UniProtKB/TrEMBL annotation:
Record note on quaternary structure: Dimer. Forms a ternary complex with NFE2L2 and KEAP1. Interacts with BCL2L1 and MAP3K5. Upon TNF-induced necrosis, forms in complex with RIPK1, RIPK3 and MLKL; the formation of this complex leads to PGAM5 phosphorylation. Isoform 2, but not isoform 1, interacts with DNM1L; this interaction leads to DNM1L dephosphorylation and activation and eventually to mitochondria fragmentation.
Gene that specifies this protein: LOC105990588
Molecular functions per Gene Ontology: protein serine/threonine phosphatase activity
The UniProt record lists the keyword Mitochondrion: yes
Protein's recorded name: Serine/threonine-protein phosphatase PGAM5, mitochondrial
Tagged with keyword ATP-binding: no
Main location class: membrane
SMART domains: PGAM
Family membership: Belongs to the peroxisomal membrane protein PXMP2/4 family. Belongs to the phosphoglycerate mutase family. BPG-dependent PGAM subfamily.
Enzyme Commission number(s) of this protein: 3.1.3.16
Primary role: Mitochondrial serine/threonine phosphatase that dephosphorylates various substrates and thus plays a role in different biological processes including cellular senescence or mitophagy. Modulates cellular senescence by regulating mitochondrial dynamics. Mechanistically, participates in mitochondrial fission through dephosphorylating DNM1L/DRP1. Additionally, dephosphorylates MFN2 in a stress-sensitive manner and consequently protects it from ubiquitination and degradation to promote mitochondrial network formation.
Superkingdom to which the source organism belongs: Eukaryota
Assigned keywords, A-Z: Hydrolase, Membrane, Mitochondrion, Mitochondrion outer membrane, Necrosis, Transmembrane, Transmembrane helix
Length: 359
């Protein structure tokens, strides 16, 4: 089936949040900063940026979590749990994405246009993530420049120029078993069994005899360590780390389950990011690609399950019904015409039964 182009509801909500929540707060903060640190103050540009990044960003994020907690009618315990699990990752993502934007905004954009500039930057950021490399060939052609006399013949010729020619093979690898009791994300390292699982997965991938083009992996500790081990069996294959593939809550499962109930805010924060990961990585080959490609993505169960549902045009709310073992291999094939096939889902047949886990 062809890749779905539907826009998830919570991606729009993420953009709308900047217009209707961040906007008013930002307006008054910019007024305060303009009076407290005027341009003539020494090192004003640096001081303004530090004030925004180290004071406003954390304070607003905390206020947003509190606001969501109140809307959901939850108590102090739920708010504390939400802050513990989501505050630091969300703040890190904010610092990475918005520091360059805010440096320009608070120092070089006129005061009356700063909120508008930030909202437009947010709009283009999400639109960019949501549209990378997945458009139909016809949408890439400027039809206004079409020669009326040559008509359909010229259109067909130009379409051929934009059509994909190669097939992409996507290998989605779930990280190996890890210490789930680690207090910090960096403490959730692989267990001894997890390291064995990664070795077995690396050996299996190497045994396929394929010329892998790259390894893209989540920036979380357990995914990085899994990648380190697998990479030893695939020498010369370049590695790329990304925050888009970090674990999270992609979309509320339907029907709901009793054993896993993250705070609703996670669906808003994680959902747009994981959807952006899907749109960024799961698409037909670029028109310039001449040969079939074989790419490895090492990440997490929730991310893989959601990607599989989206790629096959299954209702994404059913992602939690899929079960994936640690170190398992899921194989998606994307044809030049955009059709997707699932060749393997959570394969661990290459592991001895006593080595298989799902933690």
């Amino acid at each position: 089936m062809k890749l779905d182009q539907r826009e998830p509801a919570w991606l729009s909500l993420t953009v709308g949040r900047r217009f209707f929540v961040t906007g008013p707060l930002s307006h008054y903060f910019y007024l305060f900063m303009e009076h407290w640190i005027p341009p003539e103050v020494p090192l004003a540009t640096v001081k303004r940026l530090l004030l925004d990044r180290l004071l406003f960003a954390p304070a607003f994020l905390m206020l947003f979590f509190l606001f969501m907690n109140l809307l959901e009618g939850k108590g102090a315990d739920a708010f504390a749990a939400r802050m513990k699990s989501g505050f630091w990752p969300a703040l890190q993502m904010n610092w990475r994405v918005w520091t360059p934007v805010q440096f320009i905004n608070i120092n070089y954009v006129p005061l009356q246009f700063r909120v508008l500039f930030a909202n437009l930057a947010a709009l283009f950021w999400y639109a960019y993530l949501a549209s990378l490399k997945k458009r139909e060939p016809l949408s890439l052609i400027n039809l206004r420049k079409r020669n009326v006399e040559s008509g359909e013949e010229e259109l067909a010729s130009r379409l051929d120029h934009y059509k994909a020619k190669a097939t992409r093979h996507i290998f989605l690898i779930r990280h190996s078993q890890y210490h789930v009791d680690g207090s910090m994300e960096k403490d959730r390292t692989l267990t001894p069994l997890g390291r064995e699982q990664a070795e077995l997965t690396g050996l299996r991938l190497a045994s396929l005899g394929l010329r892998f083009n790259k390894i893209v992996h989540s920036s979380m500790t357990r995914a990085v360590e899994t990648t380190d081990i697998i990479s030893k069996h695939l020498p010369g294959v370049c590695r790329v780390s990304t925050d888009l593939l970090r674990e999270g809550a992609p979309i509320e499962p339907d029907p709901p389950v009793s054993h896993w109930k993250p705070d609703a805010v996670q669906y808003y924060e994680d959902g747009a990011r994981i959807e952006a990961a899907f749109r960024n990585y799961i698409h037909r080959a670029d028109a310039k690609q001449e040969e079939d490609s074989y790419e490895i993505f090492i990440c997490h169960a929730n991310v893989i399950r959601y990607i599989v549902c989206r790629a096959l045009q299954f209702p994404p709310e059913g992602w939690l019904r899929l079960s994936l073992n640690n170190g398992s291999i899921t194989h998606l094939v994307i044809r030049p015409n955009g059709r997707v096939a699932l060749r393997a889902l959570g394969d661990t047949g290459f592991m001895p039964p006593e080595k298989i886990t799902r933690s």
